[in-house]
Structure prediction request, 101 residues.
Amino acid sequence: MPAEPVLPESELRSRAQQCIEDGRLPLMLSTHIYAGDGTGELCELCDRPIAADKIEYDITDPDSGKTLHFHIACHFEWQRECARRLKEFHARSTSAPESAI
Prediction:
C-alpha cells in the first residue's frame, strides 16, 4: 500500500495551518486512531478520496463527535502542525512573567 503524499509537503502544511485557523480541523493530538483500507471518503486535509489501495486514518473529533478521515501523509502534517502550535502555546504560558504583588 503506497504511502506517498497526494500533494507536496509544503501544500499539506499550508492546508493544515489554514484548516486549524478557520476551525475546519481541531487543534488536538490524536490519541485513538483507527487505520485501515481506504473507503473512498474525502480526506479532511487534501479533499481527495482515500482509495482502497491507500491507508485511511480515522479520528473522532472530541468536540463534535465527527469522524475525521485522512491519508497517512495528511494526518502526519495535521498532527505536526498541532504539535507545533501546542508547544508554542505551552512555552508562552509557562514563560509569562508573574504579575506584581
